[in-house]
Each structure stands twice: as C-alpha cells, then as structure tokens.
Design goal:
The complex is a heterodimer of chains A (205) and B (286). By secondary structure, chain A is mostly helical. Chain A has nine helices and no strands. Chain B has a single domain, classed as Farnesyl Diphosphate Synthase (Orthogonal Bundle). In chain B, α5 packs antiparallel against α6 and α6 crosses α7. The longest helix of chain B has 25 residues.
Chain lengths: 205, 286
Amino acid sequence: MNNPYEVLGVSETATDEEIKAAYRKLAKKYHPDNYTDSPLADIAEQKMKEINEAYDAINEMRQKGKGTDSKRTSGSSSYQSASSSQFYSVRIYIQRNMIDQAEQVLESTPMGNRTAEWYYLKGMCAYRRGWNEQAFNNFTTACNMDPQNGEYRAALNNMQNQRSYNYGGYNQPNMQNGTMGCSCCDVCAAMMCADCMCDCCSAGC
Amino acid sequence: MFGYLQIQKSELLVREYEAYKSVYCGLCKQMGRDYSFLARFSLSYDCTFYAMLLMSLSKSCSGFKDGRCTFNPLKKCKFALCEDDCFSKASAFSVLSVYYKLKDDIKDERFFKRLFIRMLFPFFSHWRNKALKKYSEIDNYLSQMTDLQSTAESDPECSVDESAHPTALMLSNLFALESSSDEDKRILREFGYQLGRWIYLIDAADDYDKDIKNGNFNPYKSWEKDSKEQQMKMVSSLNQSLARAYDAYNLTDFKDFRGIFDNMLTLGLPSVQNKITAKFNGGNNE
C-alpha cells in the first residue's frame, strides 16, 4: 500500500485533527452517494476504500486505541432487489458497462412489455452514456408508472440532486450575480467598517 | 463554442492567478513559435484550460520564467515552462478548432462576416496542414464532431442529448488520449463528455437569440424564451452536466493547478452559466 499520509494528502507531522479533517473532506468527495448509477461508481468505491485503509493505518500507527475515533460511514447501499427481474440480462450488461448490448435487448422488447422497469433500465443506459435529458425523462416515466418502487425513486432522486447541484457547493443561482440584498456577510462587513471607524476616532483622540 | 471555461478571478489565490496567467502567456508564445504571429489571436480560455490539463496530467510544468509580452513590450509577464509538448499540443488544438469553427461559420453567417471569414480561412487552412502532421488524431476528432453535428442538426426531431453528443464525444476522445491506464481513461472520458456537453449547451443558450433571428439550428429552438419552466429545465440540465463532470474530476489524481481547476468547476463555470441563463428568466426575476 502507498504511504497512508500521501493518500490523505497530509504531512506526517500533521495533527490528529488535521488528519481527521483531511479524511472527512476526501470521504465526502468520494462518497458513494455522489456516484450512484455513475459509470465511475466502482472507481469511486476503490478510492473510498483506499482512504479508509489509509485512515485506519494512520490511527493504528499512532496507537490511539480510541476505537470511536475511526468511526466512519462505510459502504454504499446500492439496491440489488431485482434478481427475479424479467430484464435480468439487461441488468448484467449494464453492470458490466456493455451499454450497446443492453440497449439492443431493450429495443427488441415489444411495446406491450415495456413496463416501468423497462423505462428505468432504458434511463440507466442513457445515463451511462451521458444523455442526461433522456435519462431524466425515462426515470420520470418509470416512477410515474410504478410510484411504489424504491429503486426507480432512488434513481430519480439522484438525478434531481445533480440537477440542483446540492453537493457541489453552489446552489444559489443568484449569489454570483450580485443582485442580492443585504445578506449576513454585508451586515458583518458593515459592522467591521463601523468598528474600524471607531478605532480611528479613538486613536485620533 | 469558445471562452466559457473561465476562472472566478476574485476567488483565486494570487499565486494561482499568476500561474494561470503564465500558462496563458506561455501558450500564446508557443502559438507564435509554431504557427505565426497572427495565430496568437485565436487563443482562448478553453485552450488554456486544455493546456493546464495536459501539463497537470503529464506533470510537466517545470517552473516559470520572467519575460515580456510580445503585444505590449512594456508589460512584464511570466511564462510557464513545460518539459514536453503540452503547449504545442494545445496550440494545435486551438488552431484546429478555430479552423473547423470558421469552416462551419461560412455556412451560417451573413454576407459581410462571411467575406471576412473567407479572407481568414486560407491562413487557418495553412496552419491546419502544419498541425495535422503532428497531431492528426486531434484533427480526426474535430472533423468527426463537425460531421456528426451536421447530421444531428439536419434531423428535425433532434433531441437536446443528440445535439450535444458530437461536442461531448470530441472532448471525451480528446481527454482520453492523455490517459495512462484503463481506469484513467474511463474517468477522463466521463469528465470530457460531461464538460463538452456543458460547453455545447451553454453555447446554445448563449447563441439562442442570434440563432432564432438568423434561422439557424438551436437545440432550444422550440422553446419559449420567457417560460419559467423551460428556464428551470435548461438550468437543471446544465447543472447536471457540471455535477457529473465535477464528480469525475474528483476521481482524477492531478495535483498541479488543482486549486485553479477547483475554482473553475465550482465557481467560474457556474458564474458563466448564471450570467447566460439569467436572460431566459424573462421579466419575472424571482
């Protein structure tokens, strides 16, 4: 294994707190929720494993013995509900990233057999290809046809998260336009200005 | 489709901003060296991004050198140094992409602008031949993109996904060239695909008014400009491409210029996007 400090991107002299912070930051980045249904899910999982191991290794090296310290959220909760599915082969193809084959099977399905699952899988193929709009429409159709199904719902929710970019750190479309009114920051800035002026006065006295 | 990959200058560290500028200047210099003084005018932010990506992936940035700007000899600037052919490659991409852009514009533009393009065209076609010798694969991807694009646009039923596909594919291929392993290749493919898609869609949004006026193809053509619902849809779709590009980017392990890339993906591009999509908000600015 690589040097665990390098994996977490911290120096060997870093404090425990710094290491924890670096670990948390990376764990948030590689978190399986960010890569649900993504063609890169397996790579993200691998990275997550690496940082988990590195974090554990460092904790062990430093002989903390505090078991609670290395507590972390582990693993993804991917749905594996469909072993009895009528589109079993399609699911296998998608799992192996063989999207052309998966679509071929789907396309050869007669109109009458196009169930909610069919739309879900069709959406999954589009998603893997990067065709986000088509994927979104298909997931929506699947959810409308079978609103009780958790798997379809999860896929649609994931899409909706990405579409509002909840975890990228900028969800306020108007923030950068400078059109906002008086925000918390403005108040702070004003206070600081006022403070400076007070200082000036007192220095002048 | 140029100039959308911007930084948010106010949020960069000074040293990051200097590094960014020195890549820009280094690239400009290389274009003068490889092609001609005139070719320097085709330099764009997108090519700077590409050059940074190349240098970051090959870890070939070896330092910075002081010098003077050719356009303004009074101005001192720094040039980034690069050990391999990153700058040449990015210059080739710049020249080639402008060549294909002009070729496409000859079809679309009005009389006077077309005349102007026709005058420029021989230069670019000369430079293209030069670039072709060393970087024929880049030319391949770009010409494939142009072909696919015109096929897609001639289809009246063309969906947003389909119309964005050629650009996305081009960038995905271009980025994948730089991968050293299968895993890298997959990451860079996804990164390139979603970023290319974003570029195409933002360009389409930006050109919406012009395209409608001139009767050119635009994926949002059938949309009503002032519809709140459709603006939401457009923003969602741009957000999603950016989100997926960002997720893929997070899996890459490039270290050089990381701060600048982070800045672009989380601040620079979203602010470009906000500026452009704001006009679809109609009168109801809520």
